[in-house]
Amino acid sequence: MNIELRFFANFREAVGQKELDWETDEGATVGTVLHAVEAEYPDVDIFNEEGEIREFLSIMKNGREVDYIEGTETPLSAGDTISVFPPVAGG
After folding, report:
1. 74 is in which domain, residue-wise?
2. Given pLDDT bands bounded at 50, 70 and 90, which one contains residue 65?
């Protein structure tokens, strides 16, 4: 199945583009896709040593924070969009 990945700020730089069309297996989750992205793009650093999404990163599926769905176990369907945002600071 095909999904869309969107990257912002330093993640966009690490991947070299804003958006990627990504082919993945039926039954894939947010975690399996993001681990595959890390494997293909070594400068993308999403997970900590415990395999959890790094603190302050925002990962969204179709505009909704995955922490409020099923985290890395959030299931994906064809046509879904995953957006990866780095920490935001300022004030």
Report:
1. 2-85
2. very high
